[in-house]
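Open question from group meeting: does this chain pack into something compact, or does most of it stay loose? Before anyone orders reagents, we agreed to write out a predicted structure and look at it together. Recording both the input and the output here so the notebook holds the full record.
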Amino acid sequence: MVREFNLINNKGQRYSLMDIENSTLMTDPTGLGYSYSDEYEQLGNTFISNLRKIEQGQIQGTLNFLEYDTYRNIINFIEKSEGLRFEYKVPYTDGEKTYYKDVQLQSITKTEKMTNGIISESVIFNSLSLWYTENIATYEMSGGDDEMRWNFTWDARFSNYSVRSLTFVNDGHVEAPIEVRIDGNVQNPKIQLYIEGILYQEVPFTITLTPYEKLLYGTKENDFYLLKEEGDGTTSNIFNLSVVEFNNDNVIRLPQDKSCELRLVADNDIQSAQVKIFTYYKAI
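Structure tokens returned:
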């Protein structure tokens, strides 16, 4: 097994950084770790940390091309993307695991120099997030089905036919934000967070979703949203008093190293839903 790098755009399209024949090969990567900036106060001969924060990282390396066409291709891929993620597949001894980091291009050089028929250029990506994993669970039940059928793509436990629920332990280095999609036909759905078996947080929505409508909820630090998606794919912001109580704690994030259970409940049966949990790591 070997490590693997890719770029992913906002449409989910991948650009390989491991294929010099068809795209590019990234070598000599640096900046995959992390660092802190610290300020200290001196008390006699003792130094006390009074400000400690993680620094914004940079992923740097060398992009190697066989042709100028592939150099142009990666530039077009980056510039036509509204958002970029750096994908890093790590070959651990117990199996491969995939991590992502939101990034933004700072620079790619263009030197017009070739060594042994290879064009090599320096690249720098500024980090916009920590490393994270996407843990996705999707529930679909067609008419007439009596059983829940989850599409397992991660290690979680699902239970209870009347309440859609899952348990998860956040082994990351910070709180884990979530994204939830609930499909209509649903009346007054709620998202509940139980920690160690005790109800800790509840976000109730006063809303009726008709067939083909969706409730979209996300709690990332830089992207909190509460949206209603219509049948034609258009969305509208529904973060208002008629739908959700402002005085309530409406931002659900899973704490570290505790048994957490997310429950999706409603006045009627939830037939279709998806939950994403983003586990963030300072280094991997």
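Observations to bring back to the group:
The chain is about 5% helix and 55% strand.
The domain at 4-129 is CATH 2.40.30.200 (Elongation Factor Tu (Ef-tu); domain 3).
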